[in-house]
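Bench log. Compound arrived from synthesis this morning; before running ITC I wanted a structural hypothesis for how pyridoxal-5'-phosphate sits in the protein. Inputs:
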Amino acid sequence: MKNSKISKLTQSVHAGSIGDPLFGGVVTPIYPSAAYDYETEVRYPRYYNTPNQKALVEKLVALENGEDGLMFSSGMAAIMTSLFAMVKSGDHILLQHDLYGGTHHAALNEFGRYGIEHSMVDVSDLKSFEKAIQKNTKVIYVETPSNPLLKITDLAAVARIAKNHGIVTIIDNTFASPVNQNPIDFGIYVVTHSGTKYIGGHSDICCGAMVSSKN
Ligand SMILES: Cc1ncc(COP(=O)(O)O)c(C=O)c1O
């Protein structure tokens, strides 16, 4: 259900739903199994999402107009996995300056331990932001609206700059939610969410997600 003509309301209810093939129930059953046979598809839960996680992430993929995605145990797990999937020791990440405190802390305190360089620049000044790109910059990371200052980043401009330099873009779309903003439509490659916030909606779950674009 990736057709953007389908309303967000319909996608929120139906996308990703696998129904109940055994009894014809209309709601996706809960699959508590932590082990699966390997006959049809590898579902080793440490590497892949299990059926309920898949049902959820397919909903988010549809809402974000993405191609595929993964659920994680927290928003920070989604952010760090997405970032670390794109860089290795000696690479550089360019981040916007206004960020959720956990991400800010990770950049300042964790990247260096893995030999990953970073810069944090005010993205409202796009010229300075572009100037901060280095030869070894592999990822541009933004968050808009930002937490907690609600600063807004020009996603189309950031995507254009990144594409001109052959750099992957990642955005934390938590504060907008996929209902209000779809960064992939502006040319951003990877979208992350803290599902702990509006996607969970009731402060009773901790989870995260990443959704990637087709191109
Ligand atoms: C914008 C933003 N991104 C990421 C996170 C981290 O998410 P989690 O608490 O699910 O690890 C938060 C948490 O407050 C957040 O506000």
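What the model suggests: The mean pLDDT is 95. Residues 74-76, 100, 102, 143, 147, 172, 174-175, 194, 196-197, 206, 208 surround pyridoxal-5'-phosphate (CB under 6 Å).
ITC booked for Thursday regardless.
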